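Board notes (copied after class):
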Amino acid sequence: MCHDPLLPPAVARATEEYRRLLAEHGVTWGENPIFYVKSMATDAYLMGTDTFWDVCHAMVAARHPDLSPQERRTRLVQLDMDEIVRNVLDGRVRDNLAALRLTPGGHTLEALPQAVLDDRPLRTTLLLDSARDGRTTVTVDGETHEIAPRGARLVGITSASEVVADGRRVDLSALTRPAATARLRLRAGFPCRWSVHGEHEQGWYPEGVPARRDYHVLPYFHGDDVVLDVPAERLTVRVTRGMEYGAAQVEVTPAAGEETLVELTPERLYDAAARGWYGGDMHVHLNWAGDTVGLPEHAAAIQHGEDLHVLNLVAGNVSSPRVYDAEALAHWAGRDLPWSDATHLARLGVEYRNDLLGHLYAFGVSAPPGRFHTGFAGTADWPPNATGCEELRGLGALLGYSHPFHAAATDADGPEVGLASGRNCTAREIVADAALGLVDSLDVLSQTTITGPAAIYRRLIGAGNRLAVTAGTDAMISFARRGNQSNPPGWARVYARVDGPLTAASFAEAVRRGRTFGTTGPWLELSAGGRGPGETLDLSPGDRVPIVVRSIGPEVERLEIRTADGVLAEGPPGELTAELIAGDPTYVVAVAVGGPHERSLTGEGVHAHTSPVYLDVAGRHVARPEDVRWCLDWLDGLEAMVRDLGVFDRPGQLDDHLALYERARRVYRSRLAGA
């Protein structure tokens, strides 16, 4: 076995194992085939579409019309992923997916022709799409594939493959078009994110670099003074560098056989570090199955190319006991990763996971924990997440709940939200853990829905829980094409105001103190009575509090000032002011929103949200009765859910959960009594 000499031996061995798993099993790496693992096979072909779940549920309903919606969700795992791809695309072809349409009268090949240089073979995927009422067969490179009536099959091919349908060879010439080779040299003066694409948005990359696509299906890679082979034809070259920069773009037609230099520099929109603020992504995976193997050198190039100040690479499992990057965590725990510098800090952390109770990120751990997950592959949902929090806290971790909701949610929902599609990672236990002071933050911004977590975050702080806003994208470096999870890390960030130099300890302390805001791009400032996020104003009834909110970023459409009672003021971007007269204890947060924008690598548009400035009145903290009762109702619903859906294999395990919820109830009841 050949190991990378630049990697520690245990990390090199793990990397070789990941390569073997990818070669043997494809994108799932052989993980336990629950539905979201099976759906990985669709991700590379369905980027830019938004009907996946609608199609899945329609397919189940058509096959099982007499079952209840709850019973149908158990049938999702039985769906054929290749048929899902065909049905979602509904006749479209993609740059990485041609289609052989098998009709009752014959067959036709549909494709977006891809440029090939110097007769280099094209590797792609062919969708065998049958509209026939009977079974049919297609032979690809000597292997026979049987297609069910009106079925579909995805098959890997090259432009030199032999495909036989209806007894004759299929002409694959429509897959490619020859192009003369040219060379581009791209230079910005510092590491950046580059995109080079031509006809049909075909992407071009330096040799050996993963062919990554972002949420907008735009190809990208990172570096400076990089060289790549391209076709000698009109190309678009685009450069940017994370959310603190704009983008610059140029059209270029390089000459065949020559090297063309493109010097392009993105404009800086704001400089957070110069103000003492540093942006981090608290939830990034180096490896988590995928269509490539993530290497430390990939993470280094991305972090510097995105000017991401803090990168938390988390070790975690997928659907079975294997914990990806556990070896890297064991080697580097408690230490900055080798490419860190004065303004770029990378650490190995943890994703602690239970799909009924929620997932947590841990940043700054001094050593690996003894347990990374519960409740997978039929194991018990025990102990409660609170036990994992206590262990990780003992290892020095900054802790927060990640991607709180994977389904559209509002603060009118209870803990059952999202269960229509089976167990998921909704942050259900946070209502208990926040009351008991076991977690520091909530990832209000993540790769899933944003508006729901923001509303529920405000419920939690309104009930007296002092939690910081954080952001964790769940970006996966081992996925080159997977919706917003193949975005570059840091497309959403938590900015924290740090005292002194940037270190893991100073950043974690700033987050614990709530000196943060989360954003998908805009800069957002909040001042209430001269205090910023995480600070407290001690007021008397009738005191007047001036509030100022400022934003930077072309994508912002509206600013809001919110208190525990709702929106206090709203207005256009730039600056918004208001005045509050102290009455009941409350908090003040700022929110920036906007519609879809090229700078926002998510389908939910533009969002930024600060942590609160707390307004204590006559020595009392905010504990809005409506929000406290909401938390108590949530705990009642959580108890009922865990009794019904929790998996336990020993007496007393359920009791540990119930005891946790009762401890949290006592905290909330005491707040009601003191309100």
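Comment from the instructor: The radius of gyration is 26 Å. The chain is about 20% helix and 30% strand.
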